[in-house]
Amino acid sequence: MKRLRAQPARRIGTARDRPAPDADALVARVGGAVAEVRAAGGTVGPVRVAFTEDDWAAVPATNRSFSAVAAAKMLHHEDTACRIDERLAPEDGDSVVRKVRYGSFSTTDLHGRLSDRGIDTLVLAGISTSGVVLSTLIDAADRDYRLYVLSDGVADPDPEIHRVLLDKVFPSRAHVIDTAGLRALLRSA
């Protein structure tokens, strides 16, 4: 079996947007993974969805998901609900990203930031498995990143969709591991 390896200077852990089913346990697991990535010398890239007035104005009526957000002026970038959970608070050296769509790449400069730092490996965690994690994973795979999804660091309101993504869809594009597997991977690097 091929041993998975990641170079500490070239990996980033990402933590995503909003509360989850059993949010406290998920945040604790992701917080532990974030600490492990930092301790191994990796970069952490917290991502949040948040809109400015210009962002709302730029959302076309054809966008089924975000036109309602824009019309209702929801998810304002200064709202406390759009902040990164304080238990996963960014630290010096983290690359904090603000986005206005599901994925972490399409409306941000994340790819450029990662390229500038020579990062080629991403560890994905967050909510929801069928939204932000799926969208980010597909885009990152198309950009040729080495990908890991933390199976116990993602959640979705629909358990069946969550299971199908982790068991059937994600493995063709990413290594699906749990936080204990990440810990072992980081120690072997």
Describe this structure in words.
The chain has about 190 residues and is of the alpha/beta class. About 40% of the residues lie in helices and about 15% in strands. It has seven helices and seven strands, in the order E-H-E-E-H-H-E-H-E-H-E-H-E-H. It has helices at about 25-40, 55-60, 65-70, 110-115, 130-140, 160-170, 180-189; strands at about 10-15, 45, 45-50, 95-100, 120-125, 145-155, 175. Strands 2-1-5-6-7 form a five-stranded parallel β-sheet, with helices on both faces. It is globular. Residues about 1-20 have low confidence and may be disordered.
In terms of topology, how is this protein built?
Blueprint: E1 11-14, H1 23-39, E2 43-44, E3 47-49, H2 53-58, H3 66-71, E4 97-99, H4 110-117, E5 121-127, H5 129-142, E6 146-155, H6 159-169, E7 175-177, H7 179-188
Parallel strand pairs: 1-2, 1-5, 3-4, 5-6, 6-7
